[in-house]
Amino acid sequence: MLKGKSAIVTGSTSGIGLGIARALAADGANIMLNGFGDPREIEKLRAGLAAEFKVQVAFNGADMSQPAQIRDMVDDATRDLGSVDVLVNNAGIQHTAPVDEFADERWDAVIAINLSSNFHAIKAALPQMKRRNWGRIINIASAHGLVASTQKAAYVAAKHGVLGLTKVVALEIATTGITCNAICPGWVLTPLVQKQIDERAAREGMPVERAKRELLAEKQPSLEFATPGQIGALAVFLCSEAAAQIRGAALPVDGGWTAQ
Whole-prediction pTM value? Predict the structure, then answer.
């Protein structure tokens, strides 16, 4: 379905972003990877995806807190891959602390990477999508874009903001062949979530497996993690003609978290 089209997936060297990149590549899309990591490992990943799916795969290490680097990434993807037809804003970081102890610089970093980067990437990619009258913008929000949890002021504020941005963009392009939607994962076992589990286990002096079970039991009624592959499959669906009239939606993949 996506053969001949190209996608940027931010924060795609691991976790949900990599799951989405793999799913889009499997459907024929050329991919611009983005993220941090060991350059040798990233090159191995890039080459492996290109060989496995027989698509073009490029990498750009843009820092998603820097608007100029985001614009350059979109320009590079357009030059190297021919176009940016699909934009997946996935990059994110987390920091937990009570509001009155939340470091100012951590607030600024979370808002910049989890929210402002989406705005800058959409702004950079949208003009060419408008010229072709086709595009898919997929923002990876969170169950925390719909509900809140304690000690996550910046993350929850950013993800609520992502949903607001998604709706505005969807309305502004409602009469075009471009859609903008958000996916709201619950607990997905990624390196970011594993770090939270490890910190919880250390803080409360319990085995990691118990911390994992208790984390799920608090929020996710299915008692199972969602997978990056499931998030990727939904992203591919949102790129399809069947999803052409899904616009401005916040789609939970959260094991029932936000149904409570």
Answer: 0.95
Task: Point out the residues that are catalytic.
Answer: 155
Rounded Cα distance, 204 and 222, in Å: 24
Longest dimension (CA), the chain: 56
Q: How far apart are CA 178 and CA 250, in angstroms?
A: 16
Q: Which amino acid is at 49?
A: L
Q: Could you write out the DSSP letters of every residue in 116-169?
A: IHHHHHHHHHHHHHHHHT-EEEEEE--GGGTS--TTBHHHHHHHHHHHHHHHHH
State residue 38 phi and psi, 5-degree precision.
-65, 125
pLDDT digits (tens, 9 = 90+) for 180-225: 999 999 999 887 788 889 999 999 999 999 999 999 999 999 999 9
CA dihedral (195, 252, 238, 246) in degrees, to 10, reads -150
d(CA 93, CA 163): 17
Q: Are strands 6-9 and 57-60 parallel, antiparallel or unpaired?
A: unpaired
- State the residue for tokens 């990149």: 21
Q: Which residue has 């208790």 as its token pair?
A: 214
Residue 114 is given by DSSP the state: I
Region 38-61 average pLDDT: 98
Q: Which DSSP category does 5 fall into?
A: -
- 83-110 pLDDT, tens per residue? 999 999 999 999 999 999 999 999 999 9
Name the helix (H) or strand (E) containing 241: none
